[in-house]
Amino acid sequence: MLRPRPTTWFELLTSRQHFALAMQVLAASGAAQLEARPLAGSEPVLPRLEEFFAAFHALEADYGGYWPEARGHAGLALENPIAVLEETLARLESWAQAADRIIADIRACEARLGELALIGELVEAVPGHLPLARLGAGGGRLVDHAIFFLPAPVPDLPDIGAAFSELFPTDRGGFLVVLAERHAMAGLAERLASLRATPVPLPEFLRDDPAGHAAQVRVHSAAVAETCSVHRERLDELAEETGLAGLLNRVAVLEWLAANAGDITASRHVMRITGWTRDPGGAEIRAALDAAEVDYALTLGEGAPGDPPMVLENPGFLKAFEFFPRLLGVPADREVDPSIVTALIAPVLFGFMFGDVGQGAVLVLVGLLLHRRIPLLFLLIPGGIMAMVFGVLFGSVFSMEGIIPALWLHPLDEPITVLAAALAIGAGLLALAIALDMVQAAWRGQLMRWMAGFGGVTLAWAGLLAAFAFPALAWGLPLGLALTLAGARSAEGWSPAAAGKAAAEFVETLMRLLVSTVSFARVGAFALAHGGLSAAVVGVADALGGAGFWIALLLGNLLILTLEALVTGIQTTRLILFEFFIRFFHAEGREFRPLSAPGQHLREGTPS
Which helix (H) or strand (E) holds 145? Predict the structure, then answer.
Protein backbone atom coordinates (compact mmCIF):
# COMPACT_ATOMS: atom_id res chain seq x y z
CA MET A 1 0.00 0.00 0.00
CA LEU A 2 3.00 2.32 0.27
CA ARG A 3 3.63 2.18 -3.47
CA PRO A 4 1.36 2.98 -6.40
CA ARG A 5 0.87 0.22 -8.95
CA PRO A 6 2.01 0.79 -12.53
CA THR A 7 -0.47 0.02 -15.28
CA THR A 8 0.20 -2.53 -18.04
CA TRP A 9 0.60 -1.78 -21.73
CA PHE A 10 -1.95 -3.49 -23.96
CA GLU A 11 -2.57 -3.88 -27.67
CA LEU A 12 -6.02 -4.89 -28.88
CA LEU A 13 -6.62 -5.94 -32.49
CA THR A 14 -10.18 -6.07 -33.78
CA SER A 15 -12.07 -5.81 -37.06
CA ARG A 16 -13.55 -2.59 -38.40
CA GLN A 17 -16.99 -4.09 -37.89
CA HIS A 18 -16.40 -4.67 -34.16
CA PHE A 19 -14.25 -1.59 -33.57
CA ALA A 20 -16.99 0.65 -32.16
CA LEU A 21 -18.31 -2.09 -29.90
CA ALA A 22 -14.81 -2.93 -28.63
CA MET A 23 -14.20 0.74 -27.80
CA GLN A 24 -17.46 0.95 -25.85
CA VAL A 25 -16.60 -2.22 -23.94
CA LEU A 26 -13.22 -0.77 -22.95
CA ALA A 27 -14.87 2.45 -21.83
CA ALA A 28 -17.53 0.64 -19.82
CA SER A 29 -14.89 -1.44 -18.03
CA GLY A 30 -13.06 1.65 -16.77
CA ALA A 31 -9.87 -0.40 -17.08
CA ALA A 32 -8.21 1.16 -20.14
CA GLN A 33 -6.48 4.43 -20.95
CA LEU A 34 -5.81 4.88 -24.66
CA GLU A 35 -2.42 5.98 -25.91
CA ALA A 36 -1.34 5.71 -29.54
CA ARG A 37 1.90 4.18 -30.71
CA PRO A 38 2.84 5.10 -34.31
CA LEU A 39 2.50 2.27 -36.83
CA ALA A 40 4.15 2.42 -40.25
CA GLY A 41 1.70 2.24 -43.15
CA SER A 42 -1.38 2.91 -41.00
CA GLU A 43 -4.54 4.40 -42.50
CA PRO A 44 -6.95 6.99 -41.09
CA VAL A 45 -9.16 5.37 -38.49
CA LEU A 46 -12.25 7.34 -39.54
CA PRO A 47 -12.70 9.49 -42.63
CA ARG A 48 -13.12 13.19 -42.04
CA LEU A 49 -16.71 13.60 -40.91
CA GLU A 50 -16.91 17.34 -40.19
CA GLU A 51 -19.63 18.03 -42.77
CA PHE A 52 -21.94 15.43 -41.33
CA PHE A 53 -21.35 16.51 -37.74
CA ALA A 54 -21.96 20.15 -38.73
CA ALA A 55 -25.26 19.18 -40.36
CA PHE A 56 -26.22 17.19 -37.29
CA HIS A 57 -25.43 20.08 -34.91
CA ALA A 58 -27.54 22.41 -37.07
CA LEU A 59 -30.48 20.04 -36.56
CA GLU A 60 -29.62 19.77 -32.87
CA ALA A 61 -29.74 23.56 -32.46
CA ASP A 62 -33.31 23.60 -33.78
CA TYR A 63 -34.69 20.39 -32.32
CA GLY A 64 -32.36 19.29 -29.51
CA GLY A 65 -34.78 20.41 -26.84
CA TYR A 66 -37.31 17.88 -28.14
CA TRP A 67 -34.93 14.92 -28.45
CA PRO A 68 -34.54 12.07 -25.96
CA GLU A 69 -31.20 11.61 -24.21
CA ALA A 70 -28.56 9.82 -26.28
CA ARG A 71 -26.52 7.32 -24.27
CA GLY A 72 -24.16 6.20 -27.00
CA HIS A 73 -24.70 2.43 -26.84
CA ALA A 74 -25.45 1.72 -30.45
CA GLY A 75 -23.35 -1.37 -31.30
CA LEU A 76 -22.52 0.02 -34.75
CA ALA A 77 -21.04 -1.78 -37.73
CA LEU A 78 -18.49 0.71 -39.01
CA GLU A 79 -17.12 -0.58 -42.28
CA ASN A 80 -18.47 2.66 -43.80
CA PRO A 81 -19.04 5.39 -41.20
CA ILE A 82 -19.98 7.97 -43.84
CA ALA A 83 -22.79 5.72 -45.05
CA VAL A 84 -23.97 5.32 -41.46
CA LEU A 85 -24.02 9.07 -40.95
CA GLU A 86 -25.73 9.76 -44.29
CA GLU A 87 -28.52 7.33 -43.46
CA THR A 88 -28.80 8.70 -39.89
CA LEU A 89 -29.02 12.34 -41.04
CA ALA A 90 -31.60 11.48 -43.70
CA ARG A 91 -33.79 9.78 -41.11
CA LEU A 92 -33.34 12.69 -38.67
CA GLU A 93 -34.39 15.19 -41.36
CA SER A 94 -37.43 13.02 -42.11
CA TRP A 95 -38.31 13.08 -38.41
CA ALA A 96 -37.87 16.87 -38.34
CA GLN A 97 -40.32 17.36 -41.21
CA ALA A 98 -42.94 15.24 -39.46
CA ALA A 99 -42.26 16.88 -36.08
CA ASP A 100 -42.40 20.52 -37.23
CA ARG A 101 -46.20 20.78 -36.96
CA ILE A 102 -46.30 19.05 -33.57
CA ILE A 103 -43.49 21.25 -32.21
CA ALA A 104 -45.29 24.36 -33.45
CA ASP A 105 -48.40 23.21 -31.56
CA ILE A 106 -46.32 22.58 -28.42
CA ARG A 107 -44.68 26.01 -28.60
CA ALA A 108 -48.02 27.76 -29.10
CA CYS A 109 -49.46 25.78 -26.21
CA GLU A 110 -46.56 26.65 -23.92
CA ALA A 111 -46.79 30.31 -24.90
CA ARG A 112 -50.47 30.26 -23.98
CA LEU A 113 -49.61 28.69 -20.63
CA GLY A 114 -47.12 31.52 -20.05
CA GLU A 115 -49.81 34.10 -20.80
CA LEU A 116 -52.26 32.42 -18.45
CA ALA A 117 -49.60 32.29 -15.69
CA LEU A 118 -49.12 36.05 -16.09
CA ILE A 119 -52.88 36.65 -16.04
CA GLY A 120 -53.09 34.47 -12.93
CA GLU A 121 -50.59 36.76 -11.23
CA LEU A 122 -52.62 39.77 -12.39
CA VAL A 123 -55.92 38.65 -10.92
CA GLU A 124 -54.15 37.83 -7.66
CA ALA A 125 -52.46 41.24 -7.59
CA VAL A 126 -55.35 43.61 -8.38
CA PRO A 127 -58.03 44.45 -5.83
CA GLY A 128 -61.36 42.73 -6.20
CA HIS A 129 -63.13 45.93 -7.32
CA LEU A 130 -61.08 46.31 -10.51
CA PRO A 131 -63.57 45.53 -13.35
CA LEU A 132 -61.26 43.50 -15.56
CA ALA A 133 -64.04 42.07 -17.64
CA ARG A 134 -65.57 45.52 -18.29
CA LEU A 135 -62.22 46.90 -19.35
CA GLY A 136 -61.98 44.05 -21.81
CA ALA A 137 -65.40 44.90 -23.24
CA GLY A 138 -64.70 48.57 -23.93
CA GLY A 139 -64.07 48.22 -27.65
CA GLY A 140 -66.39 50.94 -28.83
CA ARG A 141 -65.36 53.74 -26.52
CA LEU A 142 -63.15 56.71 -27.31
CA VAL A 143 -61.12 55.84 -24.20
CA ASP A 144 -59.20 52.55 -24.44
CA HIS A 145 -57.50 50.46 -21.74
CA ALA A 146 -54.32 48.40 -21.47
CA ILE A 147 -52.50 46.34 -18.85
CA PHE A 148 -48.70 45.97 -18.85
CA PHE A 149 -46.38 43.78 -16.79
CA LEU A 150 -43.08 45.37 -15.65
CA PRO A 151 -40.44 42.92 -14.34
CA ALA A 152 -38.56 43.70 -11.14
CA PRO A 153 -36.96 46.02 -10.35
CA VAL A 154 -39.85 48.23 -11.40
CA PRO A 155 -38.50 51.64 -12.48
CA ASP A 156 -39.94 54.99 -11.47
CA LEU A 157 -42.68 55.67 -14.00
CA PRO A 158 -42.64 59.03 -15.81
CA ASP A 159 -45.79 60.92 -16.74
CA ILE A 160 -47.20 58.64 -19.40
CA GLY A 161 -50.08 60.90 -20.45
CA ALA A 162 -52.86 58.51 -19.49
CA ALA A 163 -56.26 59.49 -18.21
CA PHE A 164 -55.84 56.93 -15.46
CA SER A 165 -52.97 54.67 -14.34
CA GLU A 166 -52.28 52.55 -11.30
CA LEU A 167 -49.42 50.14 -10.48
CA PHE A 168 -50.14 46.89 -8.61
CA PRO A 169 -46.87 45.35 -7.28
CA THR A 170 -46.10 41.60 -7.18
CA ASP A 171 -43.09 39.51 -6.14
CA ARG A 172 -41.76 39.45 -9.71
CA GLY A 173 -42.52 43.07 -10.66
CA GLY A 174 -45.81 44.88 -11.06
CA PHE A 175 -48.90 45.31 -13.25
CA LEU A 176 -49.68 48.75 -14.65
CA VAL A 177 -53.35 49.41 -15.52
CA VAL A 178 -53.87 52.45 -17.77
CA LEU A 179 -56.80 54.23 -19.46
CA ALA A 180 -56.02 56.61 -22.31
CA GLU A 181 -57.57 58.05 -25.41
CA ARG A 182 -57.53 55.54 -28.22
CA HIS A 183 -55.36 57.63 -30.56
CA ALA A 184 -52.71 58.01 -27.78
CA MET A 185 -52.54 54.33 -26.84
CA ALA A 186 -50.01 53.30 -29.54
CA GLY A 187 -47.48 55.95 -28.46
CA LEU A 188 -48.05 55.00 -24.83
CA ALA A 189 -47.25 51.35 -25.58
CA GLU A 190 -43.98 52.37 -27.30
CA ARG A 191 -42.87 54.45 -24.30
CA LEU A 192 -43.62 51.62 -21.90
CA ALA A 193 -41.78 49.11 -24.10
CA SER A 194 -38.58 51.03 -23.41
CA LEU A 195 -39.16 50.20 -19.73
CA ARG A 196 -39.31 46.45 -20.55
CA ALA A 197 -43.09 46.43 -20.17
CA THR A 198 -45.02 43.49 -21.65
CA PRO A 199 -48.69 43.92 -22.73
CA VAL A 200 -51.05 41.56 -20.92
CA PRO A 201 -54.12 40.74 -23.08
CA LEU A 202 -57.27 40.08 -21.06
CA PRO A 203 -58.95 36.82 -22.07
CA GLU A 204 -62.61 36.87 -23.01
CA PHE A 205 -63.47 34.13 -20.52
CA LEU A 206 -63.07 36.48 -17.52
CA ARG A 207 -66.61 37.09 -16.26
CA ASP A 208 -67.83 40.19 -14.39
CA ASP A 209 -67.08 38.36 -11.15
CA PRO A 210 -63.72 39.51 -9.71
CA ALA A 211 -63.90 36.92 -6.93
CA GLY A 212 -64.01 34.11 -9.48
CA HIS A 213 -61.24 35.29 -11.80
CA ALA A 214 -58.49 33.17 -10.17
CA ALA A 215 -60.58 30.02 -10.44
CA GLN A 216 -61.37 30.78 -14.10
CA VAL A 217 -57.66 31.16 -14.88
CA ARG A 218 -56.84 27.87 -13.13
CA VAL A 219 -59.53 26.00 -15.08
CA HIS A 220 -58.30 27.32 -18.43
CA SER A 221 -54.65 26.69 -17.51
CA ALA A 222 -55.44 23.07 -16.69
CA ALA A 223 -57.20 22.66 -20.05
CA VAL A 224 -54.26 24.15 -21.95
CA ALA A 225 -51.78 22.00 -19.98
CA GLU A 226 -53.76 18.91 -20.95
CA THR A 227 -53.57 19.96 -24.60
CA CYS A 228 -49.79 20.39 -24.25
CA SER A 229 -49.55 16.86 -22.83
CA VAL A 230 -51.43 15.49 -25.82
CA HIS A 231 -48.99 17.20 -28.22
CA ARG A 232 -46.02 15.87 -26.22
CA GLU A 233 -47.44 12.36 -26.45
CA ARG A 234 -47.76 12.74 -30.23
CA LEU A 235 -44.10 13.77 -30.38
CA ASP A 236 -43.09 10.79 -28.23
CA GLU A 237 -45.03 8.44 -30.51
CA LEU A 238 -43.27 9.89 -33.54
CA ALA A 239 -39.88 9.40 -31.84
CA GLU A 240 -40.78 5.78 -31.13
CA GLU A 241 -41.95 5.17 -34.71
CA THR A 242 -38.78 6.62 -36.25
CA GLY A 243 -36.34 5.11 -33.72
CA LEU A 244 -35.09 8.60 -32.82
CA ALA A 245 -33.18 7.50 -29.68
CA GLY A 246 -31.23 4.93 -31.67
CA LEU A 247 -30.35 7.51 -34.33
CA LEU A 248 -29.02 9.90 -31.70
CA ASN A 249 -27.04 7.07 -30.12
CA ARG A 250 -25.38 6.43 -33.47
CA VAL A 251 -24.22 10.01 -33.76
CA ALA A 252 -23.07 10.09 -30.12
CA VAL A 253 -20.92 6.99 -30.69
CA LEU A 254 -19.48 8.34 -33.95
CA GLU A 255 -18.62 11.69 -32.34
CA TRP A 256 -17.01 9.90 -29.42
CA LEU A 257 -15.01 7.64 -31.72
CA ALA A 258 -13.89 10.62 -33.82
CA ALA A 259 -12.77 12.45 -30.67
CA ASN A 260 -10.64 9.44 -29.64
CA ALA A 261 -9.42 8.48 -33.12
CA GLY A 262 -6.03 10.10 -32.49
CA ASP A 263 -5.14 7.27 -30.08
CA ILE A 264 -5.93 4.47 -32.57
CA THR A 265 -4.16 3.11 -35.66
CA ALA A 266 -5.59 0.99 -38.46
CA SER A 267 -4.71 -1.06 -41.48
CA ARG A 268 -7.09 -1.88 -44.30
CA HIS A 269 -9.00 -4.52 -42.34
CA VAL A 270 -7.76 -4.36 -38.73
CA MET A 271 -8.12 -1.72 -36.03
CA ARG A 272 -5.30 -1.47 -33.50
CA ILE A 273 -6.25 -0.03 -30.09
CA THR A 274 -3.34 0.55 -27.73
CA GLY A 275 -2.88 2.00 -24.29
CA TRP A 276 -2.58 1.18 -20.60
CA THR A 277 -4.76 -0.97 -18.38
CA ARG A 278 -5.12 -1.31 -14.61
CA ASP A 279 -6.03 -4.97 -15.30
CA PRO A 280 -2.53 -6.58 -15.33
CA GLY A 281 -3.65 -10.04 -16.40
CA GLY A 282 -6.30 -8.79 -18.81
CA ALA A 283 -8.98 -11.04 -17.29
CA GLU A 284 -11.45 -8.19 -16.77
CA ILE A 285 -11.07 -6.85 -20.30
CA ARG A 286 -11.24 -10.31 -21.89
CA ALA A 287 -14.39 -11.20 -19.95
CA ALA A 288 -16.10 -7.96 -21.06
CA LEU A 289 -15.08 -8.42 -24.71
CA ASP A 290 -16.19 -12.06 -24.70
CA ALA A 291 -19.56 -11.11 -23.19
CA ALA A 292 -20.08 -8.57 -25.99
CA GLU A 293 -19.05 -11.21 -28.60
CA VAL A 294 -16.28 -9.03 -30.01
CA ASP A 295 -13.68 -10.58 -32.31
CA TYR A 296 -10.31 -9.56 -30.89
CA ALA A 297 -6.72 -10.45 -30.09
CA LEU A 298 -5.25 -9.01 -26.89
CA THR A 299 -1.54 -8.67 -26.05
CA LEU A 300 -0.29 -7.40 -22.70
CA GLY A 301 3.03 -5.95 -21.57
CA GLU A 302 4.91 -5.99 -24.88
CA GLY A 303 6.55 -2.91 -26.37
CA ALA A 304 5.44 -0.27 -23.87
CA PRO A 305 6.50 3.13 -25.28
CA GLY A 306 7.28 4.92 -22.00
CA ASP A 307 6.57 5.29 -18.31
CA PRO A 308 3.17 3.85 -17.40
CA PRO A 309 0.40 5.81 -15.66
CA MET A 310 0.04 4.92 -11.99
CA VAL A 311 -2.92 3.58 -10.02
CA LEU A 312 -3.34 4.37 -6.33
CA GLU A 313 -4.68 1.21 -4.70
CA ASN A 314 -6.03 2.28 -1.34
CA PRO A 315 -9.02 0.75 0.45
CA GLY A 316 -12.22 2.73 0.48
CA PHE A 317 -11.71 4.38 3.87
CA LEU A 318 -8.37 5.80 2.65
CA LYS A 319 -9.62 7.13 -0.69
CA ALA A 320 -10.52 10.51 0.79
CA PHE A 321 -6.91 10.97 1.97
CA GLU A 322 -5.69 10.74 -1.64
CA PHE A 323 -6.89 14.35 -1.77
CA PHE A 324 -3.62 15.51 -0.17
CA PRO A 325 -1.06 13.95 -2.55
CA ARG A 326 -3.28 14.67 -5.58
CA LEU A 327 -2.95 18.37 -4.79
CA LEU A 328 0.67 17.99 -5.93
CA GLY A 329 0.34 15.13 -8.41
CA VAL A 330 0.70 11.36 -8.60
CA PRO A 331 3.67 9.34 -7.29
CA ALA A 332 5.90 7.56 -9.79
CA ASP A 333 6.75 3.86 -9.73
CA ARG A 334 9.55 4.12 -7.17
CA GLU A 335 7.85 6.71 -5.01
CA VAL A 336 5.80 6.32 -1.86
CA ASP A 337 2.05 6.80 -2.09
CA PRO A 338 1.64 8.95 1.03
CA SER A 339 -2.12 8.40 1.36
CA ILE A 340 -1.85 5.85 4.17
CA VAL A 341 0.60 7.88 6.27
CA THR A 342 -1.51 11.00 5.66
CA ALA A 343 -4.51 9.10 7.05
CA LEU A 344 -2.58 8.78 10.31
CA ILE A 345 -1.05 12.25 10.37
CA ALA A 346 -3.83 14.61 9.24
CA PRO A 347 -6.39 13.61 11.93
CA VAL A 348 -3.76 13.92 14.68
CA LEU A 349 -2.72 17.42 13.61
CA PHE A 350 -6.35 18.50 13.20
CA GLY A 351 -7.43 16.97 16.51
CA PHE A 352 -4.54 18.57 18.45
CA MET A 353 -5.51 22.03 17.15
CA PHE A 354 -9.26 21.47 17.60
CA GLY A 355 -9.46 19.44 20.80
CA ASP A 356 -13.04 19.40 22.05
CA VAL A 357 -15.32 16.41 22.65
CA GLY A 358 -18.60 18.09 21.74
CA GLN A 359 -17.37 20.02 18.72
CA GLY A 360 -15.54 16.94 17.44
CA ALA A 361 -18.77 14.94 17.73
CA VAL A 362 -20.57 17.56 15.64
CA LEU A 363 -17.89 17.31 12.93
CA VAL A 364 -18.23 13.52 12.90
CA LEU A 365 -21.99 13.83 12.53
CA VAL A 366 -21.65 16.32 9.66
CA GLY A 367 -19.17 14.03 7.93
CA LEU A 368 -21.46 11.00 8.31
CA LEU A 369 -24.46 12.89 6.96
CA LEU A 370 -22.82 14.64 3.99
CA HIS A 371 -19.84 12.57 2.82
CA ARG A 372 -21.90 10.66 0.24
CA ARG A 373 -22.95 13.93 -1.35
CA ILE A 374 -19.54 15.61 -0.92
CA PRO A 375 -16.90 12.84 -0.65
CA LEU A 376 -14.21 15.21 0.67
CA LEU A 377 -16.27 15.72 3.84
CA PHE A 378 -15.39 12.15 4.81
CA LEU A 379 -12.22 13.74 6.22
CA LEU A 380 -14.38 15.30 8.95
CA ILE A 381 -15.04 11.85 10.41
CA PRO A 382 -11.46 10.88 11.41
CA GLY A 383 -10.65 14.53 12.09
CA GLY A 384 -13.66 14.85 14.40
CA ILE A 385 -12.81 11.57 16.17
CA MET A 386 -9.29 12.80 16.92
CA ALA A 387 -10.73 16.16 18.06
CA MET A 388 -12.83 14.16 20.54
CA VAL A 389 -9.75 12.21 21.68
CA PHE A 390 -7.79 15.42 22.31
CA GLY A 391 -10.92 16.91 23.89
CA VAL A 392 -10.75 14.12 26.48
CA LEU A 393 -7.04 14.81 26.98
CA PHE A 394 -7.74 18.55 27.35
CA GLY A 395 -10.99 18.13 29.35
CA SER A 396 -13.08 20.29 27.00
CA VAL A 397 -16.74 19.71 26.03
CA PHE A 398 -18.41 22.38 23.90
CA SER A 399 -15.78 24.88 25.12
CA MET A 400 -16.48 24.13 28.78
CA GLU A 401 -13.87 22.73 31.17
CA GLY A 402 -14.88 20.84 34.30
CA ILE A 403 -17.57 18.62 32.80
CA ILE A 404 -14.96 15.88 32.37
CA PRO A 405 -11.48 15.78 33.92
CA ALA A 406 -8.52 16.50 31.67
CA LEU A 407 -6.57 13.27 31.23
CA TRP A 408 -3.48 15.27 30.25
CA LEU A 409 -3.74 19.06 30.75
CA HIS A 410 -5.74 22.20 30.08
CA PRO A 411 -3.86 23.96 27.24
CA LEU A 412 -4.11 27.47 28.72
CA ASP A 413 -2.71 26.24 32.04
CA GLU A 414 0.48 24.82 30.50
CA PRO A 415 1.16 26.60 27.19
CA ILE A 416 4.89 25.72 27.15
CA THR A 417 4.08 22.02 27.42
CA VAL A 418 1.57 22.31 24.56
CA LEU A 419 4.10 24.05 22.31
CA ALA A 420 6.80 21.52 23.21
CA ALA A 421 4.46 18.64 22.40
CA ALA A 422 3.68 20.22 19.03
CA LEU A 423 7.40 20.53 18.28
CA ALA A 424 7.91 16.89 19.27
CA ILE A 425 5.11 15.84 16.89
CA GLY A 426 6.70 17.92 14.13
CA ALA A 427 10.10 16.37 14.71
CA GLY A 428 8.56 12.90 14.58
CA LEU A 429 6.78 13.67 11.31
CA LEU A 430 9.93 15.04 9.74
CA ALA A 431 11.82 11.94 10.87
CA LEU A 432 9.12 9.83 9.19
CA ALA A 433 9.43 11.90 6.00
CA ILE A 434 13.21 11.39 6.00
CA ALA A 435 12.74 7.64 6.53
CA LEU A 436 10.32 7.47 3.59
CA ASP A 437 12.82 9.34 1.42
CA MET A 438 15.47 6.81 2.41
CA VAL A 439 13.14 3.94 1.50
CA GLN A 440 12.56 5.50 -1.91
CA ALA A 441 16.30 5.78 -2.42
CA ALA A 442 16.63 2.06 -1.63
CA TRP A 443 13.87 1.27 -4.18
CA ARG A 444 15.88 3.21 -6.79
CA GLY A 445 19.11 1.44 -5.84
CA GLN A 446 20.62 4.72 -4.58
CA LEU A 447 20.74 4.11 -0.83
CA MET A 448 24.50 4.67 -0.46
CA ARG A 449 24.33 7.83 -2.51
CA TRP A 450 21.47 9.04 -0.30
CA MET A 451 23.46 8.27 2.84
CA ALA A 452 26.44 10.23 1.53
CA GLY A 453 24.29 13.19 0.50
CA PHE A 454 21.47 13.44 3.04
CA GLY A 455 22.52 11.03 5.75
CA GLY A 456 24.93 13.54 7.29
CA VAL A 457 22.30 16.26 7.41
CA THR A 458 19.87 13.85 9.07
CA LEU A 459 22.47 12.90 11.69
CA ALA A 460 23.23 16.55 12.45
CA TRP A 461 19.52 17.49 12.66
CA ALA A 462 18.68 14.57 14.94
CA GLY A 463 21.70 15.32 17.14
CA LEU A 464 20.77 18.96 17.60
CA LEU A 465 17.19 18.11 18.55
CA ALA A 466 18.21 15.33 20.93
CA ALA A 467 20.79 17.61 22.55
CA PHE A 468 17.99 19.42 24.40
CA ALA A 469 17.53 16.25 26.47
CA PHE A 470 20.97 14.68 26.09
CA PRO A 471 23.64 17.35 25.47
CA ALA A 472 26.24 14.76 24.50
CA LEU A 473 24.26 13.98 21.33
CA ALA A 474 25.15 17.41 19.99
CA TRP A 475 28.18 15.60 18.55
CA GLY A 476 25.80 14.59 15.81
CA LEU A 477 26.40 17.99 14.19
CA PRO A 478 30.16 17.64 13.55
CA LEU A 479 29.80 13.94 12.79
CA GLY A 480 27.09 14.70 10.24
CA LEU A 481 29.22 17.40 8.63
CA ALA A 482 32.19 15.00 8.49
CA LEU A 483 30.01 12.32 6.84
CA THR A 484 28.82 14.83 4.26
CA LEU A 485 32.33 16.05 3.47
CA ALA A 486 33.62 12.51 3.18
CA GLY A 487 30.90 11.60 0.72
CA ALA A 488 31.30 14.72 -1.42
CA ARG A 489 31.96 13.70 -5.00
CA SER A 490 32.08 15.33 -8.39
CA ALA A 491 32.59 13.76 -11.80
CA GLU A 492 36.34 13.59 -11.06
CA GLY A 493 35.86 12.16 -7.56
CA TRP A 494 36.52 13.84 -4.21
CA SER A 495 37.87 17.36 -4.38
CA PRO A 496 38.01 20.49 -2.19
CA ALA A 497 35.55 22.20 -4.54
CA ALA A 498 33.07 19.31 -4.24
CA ALA A 499 33.54 19.35 -0.46
CA GLY A 500 32.88 23.11 -0.34
CA LYS A 501 29.71 22.72 -2.35
CA ALA A 502 28.58 19.83 -0.14
CA ALA A 503 29.24 21.90 2.99
CA ALA A 504 27.13 24.78 1.68
CA GLU A 505 24.29 22.39 0.81
CA PHE A 506 24.67 20.79 4.25
CA VAL A 507 24.14 24.14 6.00
CA GLU A 508 21.21 25.11 3.78
CA THR A 509 19.41 21.76 4.16
CA LEU A 510 20.00 21.65 7.91
CA MET A 511 18.57 25.15 8.33
CA ARG A 512 15.52 24.17 6.31
CA LEU A 513 14.94 21.14 8.50
CA LEU A 514 15.26 23.19 11.67
CA VAL A 515 12.87 25.86 10.33
CA SER A 516 10.37 23.16 9.35
CA THR A 517 10.61 21.69 12.84
CA VAL A 518 9.87 25.05 14.43
CA SER A 519 7.02 25.55 11.98
CA PHE A 520 5.10 22.77 13.70
CA ALA A 521 4.89 24.99 16.78
CA ARG A 522 1.84 26.48 15.05
CA VAL A 523 0.00 23.26 15.94
CA GLY A 524 0.40 24.11 19.60
CA ALA A 525 -0.32 27.79 18.94
CA PHE A 526 -3.65 26.95 17.31
CA ALA A 527 -4.48 24.60 20.17
CA LEU A 528 -3.90 27.53 22.54
CA ALA A 529 -5.95 29.84 20.31
CA HIS A 530 -8.79 27.32 20.32
CA GLY A 531 -8.60 27.15 24.09
CA GLY A 532 -8.55 30.95 24.36
CA LEU A 533 -11.57 31.38 22.11
CA SER A 534 -13.42 28.67 24.04
CA ALA A 535 -12.62 30.44 27.31
CA ALA A 536 -13.90 33.73 25.85
CA VAL A 537 -17.16 32.09 24.78
CA VAL A 538 -17.69 30.60 28.22
CA GLY A 539 -16.79 33.94 29.86
CA VAL A 540 -19.40 35.82 27.81
CA ALA A 541 -21.98 33.12 28.55
CA ASP A 542 -21.27 33.29 32.31
CA ALA A 543 -21.62 37.07 32.23
CA LEU A 544 -25.04 36.88 30.58
CA GLY A 545 -26.36 34.13 32.84
CA GLY A 546 -29.78 32.47 32.67
CA ALA A 547 -31.13 31.88 29.16
CA GLY A 548 -28.39 34.18 27.81
CA PHE A 549 -25.79 31.66 28.99
CA TRP A 550 -27.14 28.94 26.69
CA ILE A 551 -27.68 31.32 23.76
CA ALA A 552 -24.13 32.68 24.02
CA LEU A 553 -22.74 29.16 24.41
CA LEU A 554 -24.63 27.95 21.33
CA LEU A 555 -23.62 30.90 19.16
CA GLY A 556 -20.02 30.75 20.37
CA ASN A 557 -19.71 27.05 19.55
CA LEU A 558 -21.22 27.64 16.11
CA LEU A 559 -18.62 30.36 15.53
CA ILE A 560 -15.80 28.03 16.59
CA LEU A 561 -17.12 25.20 14.43
CA THR A 562 -17.44 27.30 11.28
CA LEU A 563 -14.38 29.53 11.65
CA GLU A 564 -11.79 27.46 13.49
CA ALA A 565 -12.64 24.18 11.76
CA LEU A 566 -11.91 25.86 8.41
CA VAL A 567 -8.71 27.54 9.63
CA THR A 568 -7.49 24.36 11.31
CA GLY A 569 -8.18 22.36 8.15
CA ILE A 570 -6.17 24.85 6.10
CA GLN A 571 -3.25 24.73 8.53
CA THR A 572 -3.29 20.92 8.54
CA THR A 573 -3.17 20.89 4.75
CA ARG A 574 -0.33 23.42 4.70
CA LEU A 575 1.80 21.48 7.15
CA ILE A 576 1.29 18.21 5.29
CA LEU A 577 2.04 19.65 1.85
CA PHE A 578 4.83 22.11 2.57
CA GLU A 579 6.57 20.68 5.63
CA PHE A 580 5.99 16.93 5.38
CA PHE A 581 5.51 16.00 1.70
CA ILE A 582 8.28 18.31 0.53
CA ARG A 583 10.88 16.02 2.20
CA PHE A 584 10.16 12.97 0.05
CA PHE A 585 7.21 13.37 -2.32
CA HIS A 586 8.15 14.43 -5.86
CA ALA A 587 4.88 13.55 -7.69
CA GLU A 588 6.67 12.57 -10.88
CA GLY A 589 4.13 9.98 -11.99
CA ARG A 590 1.31 10.07 -14.50
CA GLU A 591 -2.28 9.60 -13.35
CA PHE A 592 -4.26 6.76 -14.89
CA ARG A 593 -7.21 8.30 -16.75
CA PRO A 594 -9.54 5.59 -18.06
CA LEU A 595 -11.36 6.04 -21.34
CA SER A 596 -14.70 7.74 -20.65
CA ALA A 597 -17.85 6.17 -22.06
CA PRO A 598 -19.76 7.83 -24.90
CA GLY A 599 -22.63 9.89 -23.60
CA GLN A 600 -24.94 12.56 -24.82
CA HIS A 601 -23.63 14.65 -27.73
CA LEU A 602 -22.32 17.53 -25.63
CA ARG A 603 -18.91 18.14 -27.17
CA GLU A 604 -18.09 21.65 -28.23
CA GLY A 605 -17.02 22.01 -31.83
CA THR A 606 -16.59 19.30 -34.41
CA PRO A 607 -14.13 16.45 -33.97
CA SER A 608 -11.43 16.06 -36.56
Answer: strand 143-151
